[in-house]
Design a protein that fits this description.
It is a single chain. By secondary structure, this protein is mainly α. The chain contains 5 helices and no strands. Helices cover about 75% and strands about 0% of the residues. The longest helix has about 35 residues.
Length: about 160
């Protein structure tokens, strides 16, 4: 169990770094392409793909925690809703909540957008919706990062206390 928790903590930190890179890429594309008339029509597509990558990266973290710590992974048609609920819930005797209520609330917007990206043509994306999501990315990644790093620290502490 100790090695598993250390591996999960390491994976959280690594994947979080990649997610943060996607956040910066989305913000940079939105800003730079917005000033270039030739690129404006493509910026929505590019940023939508990166917003998808942002949330999908977090889902990979949640799935790792569900599989290796909780030992139960959401399945079925509500797979994309359940990880937020599971990560926002304390599992008595196993772990504290991974996500705060604030993180869960912030991420709900991106979870909903993930569904949109997967189910509509790119020309149907609404620029205003993407602008809102991009503008909220810094605040969202800050609260989520704080929660995930605190959880990784929790896993490190559990692993160290088990070794002693």
């Amino acid at each position: 169990m100790t090695e598993s928790y250390l591996a999960v903590a390491g994976r959280i930190r690594r994947e979080l770094g990649e997610v943060k890179s996607v956040v910066e890429r989305a913000r940079r594309i939105w800003t730079v392409a917005g000033r270039n008339e030739e690129a404006v029509e493509y910026r929505v597509d590019a940023v939508a793909l990166n917003l998808h990558g942002f949330y999908a990266g977090l889902e990979r973290i949640f799935e790792t925690i569900a599989r290796r710590v909780d030992q139960t992974v959401p399945e079925g048609g509500s797979w994309h809703q359940e990880p937020l609920d599971q990560m926002n819930t304390e599992l008595s005797g196993v772990r504290p909540p991974v996500l705060s209520d604030e993180s869960r609330k912030q991420l709900e917007r991106y979870r909903g957008f993930l569904h949109v990206v997967r189910n509509v043509y790119t020309f149907e994306f609404e620029s205003e919706q993407i602008d809102l999501l991009v503008s909220r990315l810094p605040q969202t990644i800050d609260v989520v990062e704080e929660d995930l790093l605190a959880f990784a620290e929790f896993l490190d502490e559990v692993a160290q206390s088990t070794d002693n």
